[in-house]
Amino acid sequence: MTLVEIELPQELQPRQTQVGRFIRRTQSICPECNRILPSTIFEREGKVFMTKTCVEHGETEELYFGSYDMYQKFATYWSDGKGTHAPNVPIESCACPANCGLCSNHLSHTGLANIIITNRCDLTCWYCFFYVKKGLEGAYVYEPGIDQIREMVRALKAERPVPGNSLQITGGEPTLRADLPEIVRIIKEEGVDHIQLNTNGINLALDPGSAFKLRDAGLSNLYMSFDGVTPRTNPKNHWEAPYAIESCRKAGIGVALVPTVIKNINDHELGGILRFAQRNIDVVRAISYQPVSLTGRMKKQEREKYRITIPDCIERIEEQTDGEVPKDAWFPVPSCSPVTHFIEAFTKRPQYELSIHFACGAGTYVFEDKETRKLVPITSFVDLKGLFEYLDEKTDELNSGSNRYLVAAKFMTKLNSFIEKDKQPAGLNLAKLLVGALLKHDYSSVGQFHIRSMFLGMMHFQDKYNQDEERLQRCDIHYLTPDMRIIPFCSFNVIPEWYRDRIQKKYGITVEEWEKKNGEKLEARLYRGTLRRGKHADGCGCSAVHIEPITGT
Amino acid sequence: MQTMAQKGKKEPWAAIDKIAFSCSPQRAKLDETLALTVGFQVNGGIRRNFIRRLWEEAYDQHDPGFRLGYWVTIMKNRPVPVLAVRVKEDKFVRRGVFFWTRNPELPYRVWATVATEFETILYPKTETEAQAMLFDVTRSFEIPASKLGKGMHTLEGRIRAKWGKHVFTERGGVSATSSSLKVRIV
Prior knowledge:
The complex is a heterodimer of chains A (553) and B (186).
Chain A: E1 21-29, E2 36-44, E3 47-54, E4 58-65, H1 68-75, E5 112-116, E6 140-141, H2 146-157, E7 166-170, H3 180-189, E8 194-199, H4 202-206, H5 208-217, E9 221-225, H6 241-251, E10 254-258, E11 260-261, H7 270-279, E12 284-291, H8 300-306, H9 310-320, E13 331-332, H10 337-347, E14 361-368, E15 375-377, H11 384-399, H12 404-415, H13 430-438, H14 444-449, E16 453-459, H15 469-472, E17 477-480, E18 486-488, H16 489-492, H17 500-507, E19 509-510, H18 511-518, H19 542-546
Helix pairs in contact in A: 2-3, 3-5, 5-6, 7-9, 10-11, 11-12
Chain B: E1 15-24, E2 27-28, E3 33-43, H1 45-48, H2 52-60, E4 65-76, E5 85-100, E6 110-116, E7 120-122, H3 127-135, E8 136-144, E9 151-163, E10 172-177, E11 181-185
């Protein structure tokens, strides 16, 4: 058969109605048919949009980034990573988003690997697409065995030049597996240093002893869903979260709160979530705000109702904290590349690098002032931009053959000049911590960094409407699968029919088979709301939303 | 394979050319503000080597950027040159960032953007445009005439550029001085 190229008649030519300032061209997919489409990123009225046109399904215009100014600032930190030297899918030319796993064209090594240990859940949230729903045609229970898990972790550790070293156990609800401590132990045994558990926290709230078991097995921290500070915004675990945090406090496990942010649903409580975390700053190490990724078919009007992007969340946090955490405090994730590059040039060894696309994520650090109890962002006392610039300069010197000890000495002498000591929160000696981490590789000192401090992060996972191949190619949050592939998050979940569903079907069993094998009904493990009766727990988030910023001691 | 552009005979590897130094007004009252502009180009092999083929070669060796540090200093001259006084100094950086492009209109895998001091990013359409974004500089300053004081002053712009070693260039630097300008403050 011969393929003949035909020219489409004018009325069928893809039309794009982009009105605004052109920024760049990229590739995306049609949200209806997954066809790869050229797309345009452009600015209009201070916001950044993406537009793409499918010959069959027409034009899709979507908000890409809520602030053009922030887009411009973030884009200057663009830095492509080292990629993987031991890809599982060797291909000649790029075929994103097909053939993910990782392919030879992927530009970031695994920053955080996800491993799904079950797709069962004890909740049935209407918006969630991660759990097995009984009664649906083609519903499969996916629970890889211990040996499969071990092999998957080995695939992660086989990555080069930087073996994967950070792993998240996820689900469904992973605490539903009775052998969870055993799974943590195996992952640790295979040499993974950082293990976090993505959970709703309910089972840790019900059984505080399980937190001790998980800690002893090697769990580093909890990555706990927490969508708001009222039962309305966080029906998932509003009542249980304080108990889960208490379990972690007693066991000595850190907690990261993970709100999925949906416009018009919980975007008015981002400051409240931060205040709740501040009240638990001895155990809450981070908040990872995740602007919603819109799944399923949605009309433009509906998408506009729910769509929120990183700059929008950052602006709301500024408003809702009365400027305590301002917009300027945030930097894109790849802004830490100058630090990595400097260490690489100094040690002459490839280092762990967060080389995702600048539009994927952002972060900052906040410290609690002991006296005023106000939050002090790191940018209040550190000239981060100047520091990154200086590190770039020193990296250039090292790569040009300068004596590394001389450069290190210069760096240490200069480091203090980027820190305004009088504005530093009491009890913190940042320069000392940085020197320890950068030059001595003493990462235990980084742990001290977290004392009375929190990392605030943003991670905007893509969906079919805003999917950008440039972002996908740089994704560093990956999924380990039993076929020994390592699949980028935004392929795995954005096109589930090619990845997630297919894998879970292939390696899962039907609900009926699972019930027969385990002698229990799938719904038997659903949470019955034991902790929702009676009064709210002490320190329950409800109180945080009504109070003024914390002042005084 | 030849990896670098050949240096032509008698041609320096880098030179600062087309220096334009202006001051407006050149006769001002003590309470007025002077607008000074320094414009120049960095030319030579360093500029000619900033081409797509070498961006790609550098990118493939994980050398995905080119950082150029600039210093522009306005000096007030005295009869003895070593006693010249620094009136204004501006240090800034421009970075060429090589990246794997997904622009379907570009028939290349690797392209470049130019970032200025972590403030803004520019997307060139051609190699020549990329070179201009990185190597053509115009800096403007405003200084109060009172900073110079009453009398006749001779001003000049001193320019310096510095870069590190990359796949397409050795570490290097270049400097130049503009012609001088007479400014009278009354």
